[in-house]
Amino acid sequence: MTAANRKSGFRIFLMSFMLVMMNISLAHAELDLSLKSGTIEKLPIAITTFFPEGGADREIAQDMPRVINDNLERTGLFEPMNPRAFIQSVDSIQKDGIRFAEWRAINVQTLVTGVLQKSDDGRTRVEFRLWDVFSEQQLSGMAYTTTKDNWRRIAHIISDDIYKRLTGEESYFDSRIVYVSETGPANMRIKRLAIMDQDGANHNYLTDGSTLVLTPRFSPNQQMITYLAYYNNKPRVYLYDIDTGRQRVLGDFPGMTFSPRFSPDGRNVIMSMMRDGNSDIYIMDLSSKRVNQITNHLAIDTSPSFSPDGKQVVFESDRGGSQQLYVMDATGANPQRITFGAGRYANPVWSPRGDLIAFTRMFKGEFYIGVIRPDGSGERLLTTAYHVEGPTWSPNGRVLAYFKEIPVGAGGNSRQTRVYTVDLTGFNERRVPTPVDGSDPAWSPLNP
Amino acid sequence: MNAAATIEKAPFIDRDDVRRAMRRAGELKWGLLLSILFHVGVVAVGFMGLPYLKRDTIVIQDSIAVTLVSADSVSENPQAPPPAKTQKRPPQNTAPEPPRRIMPTVATDTPPSPLAPQRPETQIITPIDNPPLVAPPARKPVFEKPVPEEAPPEQQQENFQSLLRNLMPDEPQSQASETHDNPDEAQESSFLTNFQQSVTADEMGALRSQLSGCWSVQAGARFAEDLIVPLRIFVNRDRSVRNIEIMERGRYNSDTFYRAAADSAVRAIYRCNPLALPADKYDLWKTIVIRFDPSGML
Question: For residue A300, what are the contacts with CB-CB under 8 A and spacing of at least 6?
């Protein structure tokens, strides 16, 4: 073979090699595409009635899905379908399994099914499953066994599980709200501490109304509530033990104490104390009863609230000339003003997820509930009214509860005070039902 | 005679002339036709440009649209998913997460005090027999590398290292594909695209707009800027979805926000099934990587 032949042979080989490689690469090419727009919409979910097996309570089998439905609907993130639109019956699901196509046909994306059983020891076993209607996969499944009377709590726990699975976020349904229930005319207002589930169910009074109560706050373990009560017309911070119903005054201080809150570990209470006509912030260790003064300023410092890591405190102060919000270290060092808007800022409360601080703002005779980042950026006002005040965070930091007072009756002489919630979008304001007027809500952490 | 000759000759000459004239006319006709065609072509090019080149220009401008990932680069990518990964989500991955708080037993039969809530006993229930919607995809032969029965020692070492590379997480793979914003990469990919038939910007736009309508995004989702979900979609010739692979499996199993976002992306694909793809370009879209990116929406 000549050199020229070898050369042309090599060329042919090289060319065919390149062609083969190119073919392979093109045959297995992947189309790659970025999708940056979708549809912002509520997630359509179908919640079927639960299937009662072997003497299980039929009423609960109907009521539990209703509670779950209401919980999810109130979030503003889900759109529970009207059960009348369902094609497949609950009996048929049990007998034949889920016919996903029939659920897709009514534009459902996720489906909740459940079974109620009576266990051998007389208790109730509730089993639920969450399904993805399109991929036909089970997304979650849990069974709970408890006494029959505890069914509402299970419904909340199931709601939490669904919420967390579909949003990725911690939930808040299995939690409670303590608030001040109000009755009677304005000059003879009877104020009682009351507690209820976050949806207003299981309502109970904690105090009898003989003393005026204000600003209740939960301890992190929910065993205690700290609040302000006027006993013998002297305002003092008290502790209420939920299990025993016992109340006791927190420390014996020379001046009046007010606006208490627990530290995130529950070991301390931070509050304001009035001394010689000036109010400063103090921290009290609940076990040693030792008290530390952390602000010392001629201006009024009050309404302190810890950051979730316990390292910082937000509070309101008029040291800058008007009532504004400040953030400082928990030792009292480095106070930094974070609000500079017109009007006055009050009731700051740090979100349990740490990213925001909620507050009440008063400006030109209107009240607002808003949020701001701890560094003072991103202020947003979520709701406004004649009088809205006292925001408190849901356990997951997505929703705020507060109270709203509006003039009612002839000439607007009397006032109606109600508890409301709004989520961080500001578009989803809901009333929390209370038997009578209510103010100063405080949202608990998730139930233990 | 002359006249006769003339008469006799004339038709011949005439016929000849006519024949010649016809021949010339025929030639002229072809020339004219060719000329007309050429001119029309030139004018058309003048108006519309060379269709192929113009399409390429769009691909370069809209370089996000198409990225061709060559098979050898995929197979040699240390982070390329092994074929087993391309199978339908195994049941254990869809198993429910453990409960947040578990109380061992609640034995009392007394009604619970509303002031001291009673925690129910909690138990995880496994999925019921749950056949997947679609059959798992066939193994992709390109990923299969025949392992020699007796490898020389140094090659064994190399094989072991390549195995280690294969066990590593997927990120570099996705990084490699995410570099389509880089102009050089875009040019390279568009060069490959030019070479063969391409999926046009219009066709990509049709798929995008179809998927946008199917993808429900919940308002106010947290950490939206980090929640880009790449899915690899295996498509049948009839444009129906054969299988969907969640490419960042590790994150899916560990991050609840990511898992919710990925499930929502998978739902979007199934909702849009069959996909709006050009019927004649199957080789180009039989596997598609779609990156669901909600960062600009929330």
Answer: A278, A279, A317, A318, A323
